[in-house]
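Can't attach files on this board, so I'm pasting raw text. These are the components:
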Amino acid sequence: MKSLPFRWQLTLFIVLICGLTLALAFAGLYLYNVQQFNNEVQRRLDRTKNVLLDSLTVALAQKPNATDLPLKLLEADAQISAAAVYSAENQLLARYIRPGSNEVVPPVPSVSARLLSNDRAVVWTQIRSPKGTFLGTLFLKAELSQADVEQFSDLLRGSAIVFLASSLLAFVAAYRLQRHITRPIVELAAVSANVQNTRDYGVRVSSAASGEIGVLINSFNAMLDTIQTNTTALDLARIAAEDAKEKIHQANDQLEEANRTLEARVEERTRLLVKASRDAEEASKAKSSFLAKMSHELRTPLNAIIGYSEIMKEDAEDDGDARRAADLDKVLNAARHLLGLINDVLDISKIEAGKMELYLENFELQKVLNEVVATATPLVAKKGNTLKIECPPDIGSMHADATKLRQMLLNLMSNASKFTENGTITIRASRRPAANTDMIEVAVIDTGIGMNDEQLGRLFKAFSQADASTASKYGGTGLGLAISKQFAQMMKGDITVASTPNVGSTFTIRLPADVDVKQPSVVGTSEQRLTKSPFPTEGSKPRVLIIDDDENVLTLLSKLLQKSGYLTTTAETGEKGLKFALEEKPDIVILDVMLPGIDGWTVLTKLQGHRETAEIPVIVLTAGHEVDMALSLGAGSVLRKPVDASRLTAEIAMQLNPTASGYVLIIEDDHDARDIVIRMLERENYKFRAATNGNAALRILKKSRPGIILLDLKMPGMNGFEFLEILGQHPEWGKIPIVVVSSMDITAEMRDYLKTRVVAILQKSKFNRDDLNALIRPVLQT
Amino acid sequence: MPRILLVEDNEMNRDMLSRRLEKRGYTLSIAVDGGVGVALARSEKPDLILMDMSLPVIDGWEATKQLKADPETAKIPIIALTAHAMDSDRQKAIDAGCDDFDTKPVELTRLLGKIEELLKKFPPKA
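---
Top answer:
Structure tokens for the assembled complex are below.
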């Protein structure tokens, strides 16, 4: 059944129902007819029996056991197939068998058997006289007459015809009518099969139907609609996803490519930077050697001029030619002046190139003072000045650069002589005991024109004399004091000045009696000043890797850091440092840039470039000024050598636990501008970190959150505006207050843009420490 | 009269210094390079040597080292003449064994003082 199409199922079903109904109807009819017929037969049988009984009663009453009984009469009744009459003693008296029939006459059954028999075509009845005397028994048996049989056959035939005709009609009607019902369902089935096979959700069931099927079709169509919509959306989404996947692949490829390029570029940049650094060193060396050579080249002819002038002057004096001697004296003075100028320029160049060296020796201060006085006496006497020397006899010896001290003293005395007329120039020396080494003070005191505060301010600056007009009046390069001050500072001393206009000036050279220029490699080591580790408990102590070729630094820093609550590993070469960094994954690296073999820059680049070490913060130690380079190569921060242990430990703690306290992030590419701000911050004791552009700043931001950002706008790489854009896309950074510090002309448009993003705009060099402080303090103190 | 060996390659410097020293009564021998300087020092045994440092053939430092290593000449005081403010040169001169140094251009009075001081310390024989 199940394999039959639905319409055939339905047709068959209807026909079956019809057949069944008709069959039941006909069966009922038939049974009714049979009943009617049987009743008729019974009635006829009864009538025949009564008629027969009347005649038999009479006959038997007259003559019991008569055998000539009128059974022949029964031939008129076609229904009776057999009849018999039994005597009261159950002796067969007469019998009748319809001709052609093969009936037999049975014996008289017992009364009970007769009562129990329900054969309606058989009648057993007692013949009794009107008085009720039992005369005998009558047996009658009826059977269907030919007419009856024909009547039955007609009935059956008619019924069969009606049945067949009805069935056919039912079939035709069902077949025709079922279409109305099945067509929508069949189409529904076909469409759903089609959908199942082809996954074409665009088809629809077009047949209309009423009732539940209509609802079904509508629902099915609606479902297809939904599926189609969803499938379309799904397809679009899949296409989009595939597109996206493709794009991701491409992006990945590009990223890999970019990574490779970046690595290559970083290497290239590092190489260039290192080269630039070396070039600069080379250039500096070349400059130095040029200066040395020039000094020789300039001095050789000058020496000849001075030397021969002296010889000629001596000869003239010997000859008593006073005029020529005086002329030659002028040549000599001019030549000596020129030599002095050349020496000054060469000195200042050397100082600026950092190439000025000290020649430390032990000498008697008294002796040097005497030499200087001897040299300066003619100079002092020129303008009618008196020279006084006040030096305690027990001033003793000192360890310093005597030549430079001589030069400094001569310079001060020459200045004093220049600006004093008919006055007194005093040299006053003294020794002042101090903690580590005694201090030697030599003051040059004049009673000259003196200076006001403004002039004093510019005094020690190279290429600037107290007054522009001074140069023309008094001569000189104005370099002497700058050089002298530098010399004093090189020897860990200083030159100070006190002056009152029209009263005079006092220049004081202050030097350690025992000059020791060997710089300690680590300073600020007192334990109270060290910042303790943020995680000082055993088992959670951060590990610090120190890479430095100086054994002393390694030992000392290890000791100090262990005291501060860190575990330490040391490496004396870049190779070892890289190896340890990969093996131990320290929490932080302290890296000296001057290393034998692989230098610190290369180590830094490799640490930053390696996936496993890129996140480790690196604190760079440098003796030079390569802050920009270090930051651009990814250093977490840069500290100058000698290492200040208190600053180093503070920096380590901040790098490891940056959220513990806020810091100021300075984003500024210009070294000088950055330095100014840093100095202001240092004075206020703010913690800070610096980045040279937006990219570098983002690197810092990813690791720690600053309390406030000072942002320059014009920078190479990622500029301030781009940086603000990126910051705006990260809600977690959105709340960091930003102060723009720029030298740009801020247009109204820019101001509008910045207004919503920054808390203040400061013009470079037009703000002071208080302005900055007012912005930073509220943020960092909350 | 004390005999001084002047080792100096620059002709003018040599001429000036020798003339001025001779005028003050010293007897001068002249060498124009380090090699000649060492040879003359060995053959003439001067009372004092004024040694320029940047010299051809062998430089002043090397010449000084050779002379100071030779017992025959080790006792002869040597004054190094170095360029102005070249402190490293000066240190090298002391390291090579020079007894004193002075800078060029020569300031005669100062140089004479140094010469006399050294001659007092290492008095000429006979």
